[in-house]
Amino acid sequence: MKTTTTKAGLERDTLDAVGAEITEMAVAPMTPTETDVESAAAADVADETAEQALSGGATTTPWWRSAIRQSAPVLLALAGIAAIWYLVSLAVLPQDQRFLLPPPHEVFSRALTNSALMTPMLEALGRTVVVAMIGLVIAVVLGIGWAVVMSSSGWAERILYPYAVIMQTIPILALVPLIGIWFGYGFPARVIVCVIIALFPMISNTLFGLQSASPSAHDLFTLNKATALQRLTKLKFPAALPSIFTGLRNAAGLSVIGAMVGDYFFQQGPVGIGGLLRTYTLRLQMDALFTAIALTAVFGVLVFTIFAVLDRLVIGRWYGLKR
Amino acid sequence: MTRTLVMEGVSKRFDTGTVALTDVDLHLAAGDFVSVVGPSGCGKSTLLRLASGLDHVTGGTIEVNAHSTSYVFQEPALLEWRSAIRNVELTGELRGVPTSSRRARAQEALDLVGLTGFEQQFPRQLSGGMRMRVSIARALVTEPDLALFDEPFGALDEITRLRMQTELQRIFQLKQFAGLFITHSVSEAVYLSNRVIVMSGRPGRVVADIKIPWDYPRPPELRYEPEFGAITGEVSAALGEHS
After folding, report:
1. Is residue B178 part of a domain?
2. CA A181, CA A253: separation in Å to the nearest integer?
3. ipTM, 2 decimals?
4. Orientation of helix A104-112 relative to helix A115-152, angle to 10°
5. How far is CA A101 from CA A111, A154, A276, A288, B12, in A?
6. Which among A27, A55, A69, B129 has most CB atoms closer than 10 A?
7. Residue in A closest to B80 by C-alpha
8. A48 with B126: Cβ contact below 8 A
9. The whole model's pTM is what?
10. What is the dihedral of CA A28, A33, A36, A37, to 10 degrees?
11. A224/B126 CB distance under 8 A
């Protein structure tokens, strides 16, 4: 490891040398105009102050504006979906097949006013949200912990990484029946599906982030005799934070999917929205089915938006950026 | 007078078999500012890593008599998530210096490098030259007896580079540490140093040790004096003969 770094350093030396020679030649005739470098230095700092004043006001964006900016494209996409829906329903499908895709306003006006339908649906969605969030929290804690252990030594990484990859590459549908047999068909099994789906992006993004600090920064910590804990908390972890948030955003979306897959297959105990989707499909309750799909879509968008806003807020403040 | 840094017959061979340095002798005392120039890949950076203890010799001995050694890297190597002053405080934090004195010393160091008023700015909000100033402040805040510079101005544009040379010289005159400075620029080496060491191509060894006669502070116009040209010529010639 050390030797390869040095080798790369030497190669960089070569490039720099060429660059330095060129700049020196180019600058030689320019230097006589530099009469007083000292005062120029002061001017330099002054220039930079002016530049900063121009480059951005000190006001930070309020969170709601960030939320709108994050969700606007998604809302536009939803509008596009509605447009296509209308087009297919009214223009493509013949009258006698329209029940396969009734126009959105009919679906929602019938479904949303029917409290006998909506109350159990919202309750089921609530349960799925709980499963998804518990699954996400477990995946985040486990994923970050796993990555921290892997980043602590090359051996740990070589031993632990294959497990993460295997978990990622086995299709979840192949595992679901097994999970049912082992853990039953209720709440815990649903959470487990969630965790398995959401874990990999947390592990891989966190690991990537933990390894992203520059070799010089590591040298600086070494020279100041930093402990392993100091290196983790003051260098590796803060450096990893932007990647951790990327992982979090992906994991959140996946845990929603995981919770619904869990619902769909594990029908024991209180039913989740995934379970209802299956029931509606079997009974050909089209209005209810479309409403349930729409609800899960809104839920997914909401989760994505929340984590995207959180990302901007935390990382923006952390790095002193004005976005 | 005890020497701050004594290198005797130092050589370094990497695990890959590459011999970076052979038989290097180097002596540095407080008030010395020594620049090392040499062709690319001659082991100049390796020399600094050995002196700092980041890497170990495979032959010869190194003796460091310094209460504190600091290192300025090629790139500023600032922590992006810390403001300028908190970046300067980092070394104190790692060494367990109490918060109040740490903050005061960081402020002094920032004042010294001309960044008063920029304490709360984050690295991304600063220009390349200012980032390097923060990096130098971070190195000086520990009051080092030995300061190692690994080509710190290499990535800066030429105008900023000349300003930083003047700044560094002023700081050196004030602090009187023993400075070891790696550079590719002959004029930078001659302007800053009281001795310039010329190294041969790989494996690196010392081929010339040239004394620079002027007292500090040196005015920037010194660079246009014929005598300055003569000495840079001498250094360049030594470089050319052995590359």
Report:
1. yes
2. 26
3. 0.91
4. 100
5. 14, 55, 19, 12, 76
6. B129
7. A319
8. yes
9. 0.78
10. -40
11. no
